[in-house]
Each structure stands twice: as structure tokens, then as C-alpha cells.
# Entry
Amino acid sequence: MIDSDDFVKALQDIGCDFFTGVPDTILGGIIEVLSEQRLYTPSVREDEAVAMAAGAFLGGKVPVVLMQNSGLGNALNVLMSLHLIYLIPCLLIVSWRGFEGNDAPEHVVMGQTMPQLMETLRIPHRTLSAETMVDDLQWTAHTFMDQRIPVALFLKKGVVKTIQP
# Structure
């Protein structure tokens, strides 16, 4: 399991310096660390967070948006009509609720279809693991700036330490 402090530091090491999103229990530890460091700007909706990330990038920041995968539905229009058209990158850290059908019923459909959804949108993605974190983050930084589009890291429960058991 990756410690939340270490994960935030690793994000900062690849240049990430603007963090926003919508809370989720899987992301709780990361958001707690970012909040303690006064680096997190909360959002009320995922589409708002993605729009804020666009503004942050245009202002010279390297943005990260944290959300659970059910929020991708809310963010699709901004991702497609702003980020993908105008080549505005951001890192999407998406908690993978409903992975393999193991979650509340409302998370199952998005959990099953999220990889295909990202492929349809042509948003490069990887599933983060403790063993591959360094490679995943190097790939993220490289892809983010070379292609200048959103890049997604899927985060399953238990990979990064959270504040709840």
C-alpha cells in the first residue's frame, strides 16, 4: 500500500502543482494530505473541477483532478469540448468504484465500462499499483506533456492509504 504522503510527494515530483476534485473515500487520504498542505481546492462537481484544471493549466500550473469514476459522467462534456479540442492536459486520478462488480449497485455499470469509456474518448489511462507507481507516474508526465491531453490513472481501493478502514 502506498502512503498518501508519498503519493502526493510523487505527484509533486513530476510537476503537479494544482489539485482539485470531488471527495471520495478511496481518495480520502490523498485529499487529506493535500488539504493539510493547503494545496487542495475542493469542487462541488466533477465538471467544475475539470474546468478549473483547464484554467489552472492556462495559468501555468500542472493540474490534477481527483474524482470517483461515477463523476466521469459529469465531466465528459468539459473533457470533450474543452480539454480534448484545445489540447489542455490534466491528470485525472479516478477511484475505480465497482471494480469487478464489487461495490454498491450504483457503481457497477461505470466500474465495468470505465476503461472502454476512456478508450472511446481517446484518453490514455493506466491502473496505478504500488509496484508500478514510479513507472505509472513517469508515463503520466511524459504522456501529459507530449500529447497535451487529459491522462487518467485509475485507483483501486487499497492501493493508496485512505483515512477510512
The two ends are 13 Å apart (CA to CA).
